[in-house]
Amino acid sequence: MPTLYPCDNCPFRSDKPFRGLTKKRVIEIDQAINNDRFFSCHKDIAKEKKRACAGSIIYLEKSSLGAFANVTYRLASMRGDFTPDQIKNLNLNSTPIVASLDEFIKVATI
């Protein structure tokens, strides 16, 4: 399975500001994924089968909770969206994903 890495225009990227969301929406996304809700990759919006957003998985992994604290992401891992080994092998310091809600608001809002 390939390395878990965010899309070029993932809203969670810290190196390429997204600037397409309102502050309210960013907070909603953060609250959702921190409360066992699924956040799909934006490239899958029109698809029937939605994959978990790699950026959101890494964002949770960087938090004190970790990606597997989210029940829907554990289920996504079981269906093959990503593996525990992909999480284990992440270099969190070099993966360009925001590490906090404040940073997420800064890079993703209009």
Order of helices and strands: HHHHH
Total domain units = 1
Tell the overall outline.
Answer: globular
Largest sheet: none
Radius of gyration: 13 Å
Tell me the number of strands. 0
Count of helical stretches: 5
* Helical content band: 25-40%
The poorly predicted ranges are none
First and last CA, distance = 35 Å
Mean pLDDT: 92
| Percentage beta strand | under 5%
Strand pairing plus helix content: what structural class? Answer: mainly alpha
Topology diagram in text:
Blueprint: H1 23-33, H2 54-62, H3 71-78, H4 84-88, H5 101-108
Helix pairs in contact: 1-5
Describe the structure.
The chain is globular and about 35 Å long. The chain has 110 residues and is an all-alpha fold. Helix 1 (23-33) packs across helix 5. It has five helices and no strands. It starts with 22 loop residues before the first helix and ends with a helix. 31% of the residues are buried.
List keywords for this structure.
single chain; 110 residues; mainly alpha; 5 helices; 37% helix; globular
